[in-house]
Amino acid sequence: MPSLSARLLDHQALEPYISSQIMELHHSKHHAAYVNNLNNALLSHATAVNAGDIAAQIALQPLIKFNGGGHINHALFWENLVPSDSPDAKTEAAPSLTDEIAKTWGSFDSFKGALSASLLSIQGSGWGWLVKDQAGRLHILTTKDQDPVVGGEVPIIGVDMWEHAYYLQYLNGKAAYVENVFNVINWKTAEKRFLGTHDDLFTSLRGML
């Protein structure tokens, strides 16, 4: 069964850009709820499989998708973050990725603007992602609610745009949250994901949880 990552950063480590209060609630309450609900749904699904109850198995799929996606997305998100004074928070930690970003968007600033605009375009709850497709090309995409990235793309950087990720600190100032989250992106992790494959990422993810 999935469990929360034991390697989460200290809750104060991302200040002043993400407050310790947000990090504590986000990890110990919101992410924990996804894990608990996923575990319960998987147990119910196993029971339904053993009983041959196909209707129950089908009925549980939305619950598994929502909570499983929430678990995956948050596990990836924690690994995406690092204290702003870490060398890993510098784009120099991702030379191959930033070179490809420059080729794709013309400059890092253009990429940052495009990703920021995409994040701020999300209506309601969701996530914004920088992904690598199966041909190695970079794209920006968004997913609704807790839908995970699917289709074989490698999620390189993900940003949580649910209100619980920023509201206690930024209130309705989503633009300020988006601007500041760039200060705590773990570019070393992003570089590793860019150079790896979809299978590499999720094998690593399974080992982390």
UniProtKB/TrEMBL annotation:
Belongs to the iron/manganese superoxide dismutase family. GO terms for molecular function: manganese ion binding; superoxide dismutase activity. Residues 96-193 form the Manganese/iron superoxide dismutase C-terminal domain. InterPro entries: Fe/Mn_Superoxide_Dismutase, Mn/Fe_SOD, Mn/Fe_SOD_BS, Mn/Fe_SOD_C, Mn/Fe_SOD_N, Mn/Fe_SOD_N_sf, SOD_C_sf. Its EC number is 1.15.1.1. It comes from the Eukaryota. It is an enzyme of class 1 (oxidoreductase). Pfam families: Sod_Fe_C, Sod_Fe_N. Residues 10-81 form the Manganese/iron superoxide dismutase N-terminal domain. One of its GO terms (cellular component) is mitochondrial matrix. The keyword RNA-binding does not apply. This is Superoxide dismutase. It catalyses: 2 superoxide + 2 H(+) = H2O2 + O2. It is found in: Mitochondrion matrix. Its cofactor is Mn(2+). PROSITE patterns: SOD_MN. Mn(2+) binds at residues 26, 74, 160, 164. Homotetramer. It comes from Podospora appendiculata. Keywords: Manganese, Metal-binding, Mitochondrion, Oxidoreductase, Transit peptide. Destroys superoxide anion radicals which are normally produced within the cells and which are toxic to biological systems.
